[in-house]
Amino acid sequence: MFIIPTSRYVNYFKSTMSRDTLQKPIFICRIPVRWGDMDAYHHINNAMYLRYMEEARIQLLYQAGIKMDGRGLGPVIVNASCTFLSPVTYPDTLVIECYIGDPGRSSFMSYYKLYSQSQQDRLVCEGSAKIVWIDPAENKSVPLPAKILDIIQSQSLPNT
Fold first, then answer.
1. How far apart are alpha carbons 156 and 149 in whole angstroms?
2. C-beta of residue 47 within 8 angstroms of C-beta of residue 142
3. 19-23: long-range contacts, CB 8 A cutoff, minimum separation 24
4. How many other CB atoms are found less than 10 A from the CB of residue 92?
5. Within a domain: residue 159?
6. Which of 159, 124, 157 is nearest to 31 (CA)?
7. What's 51's domain CATH number?
8. Lowest-confidence segment of 3-12, 22-31, 49-58, 76-85 by average pLDDT
9. Which of 10, 4, 16 is nearest to 111 (CA)?
10. Considering only Cβ atoms within 10 Å of each terminal Cβ, which end of the chain, N or C, has fewer?
11. DSSP string, 1-26
């Protein structure tokens, strides 16, 4: 993979995150890179980065006490983006910082920074996803739960 980091992409990412959001990650996790995550070019396949962000998001929601059982109200992703800054190869461990933006009625933005431990914690990828709360029975968005609004307001997860 040829990576050409341009200021346009970096500036886009910075412009989509509020200044407060960048101050402190709400959640950090570590995900080991598997050999099978690589592609024919011997670096992590681009689709895997969305999976890593998904795993970090699920861990964050689990830590927040949100059930992901498919029954009742819950979160879905309506869009996701990813900017690749540097290739990663096996073996490695990615450190993923998760940030949460200001809430809307039924949604909020989540942002991710992925760092490579084998590259001296170099920033290798940035991404985002819009999370919308829905009622799957009605297939419609619903207001964010008070628990989620409290987490966004405090920018911290409850102690578990």
1. 11
2. no
3. 20/155, 21/99, 21/100, 21/101, 21/102, 21/111, 22/99
4. 16
5. no
6. 124
7. 3.10.129.10
8. 3-12
9. 16
10. C
11. ------HHHHHHHHHHS-HHHHHS-S
Tokens describing residue 149: 């609004």
pLDDT of residue 4: 39
CA 62 to CA 44: how far, in whole Å?
Answer: 26
Give the global pTM: 0.85
Distance, in Å, from the CA atom of 7 to the CA atom of 143, rounded to the nearest integer, reads 36
Boundaries of domain holding 36: 7-154
For 35-96, the three-class secondary structure string (H helix, E strand, C coil) is HHHECCCCCECHHHHHHHHHHHHHHHHHHCCCCCCCCCCEEEEEEEEEEECCCCCCCCEEEE
Evaluate whether residue 97 is within a structural domain. yes
pLDDT band at residue 22, thresholds of 50, 70 and 90? Answer: low
* pLDDT above 50: residue 48: yes
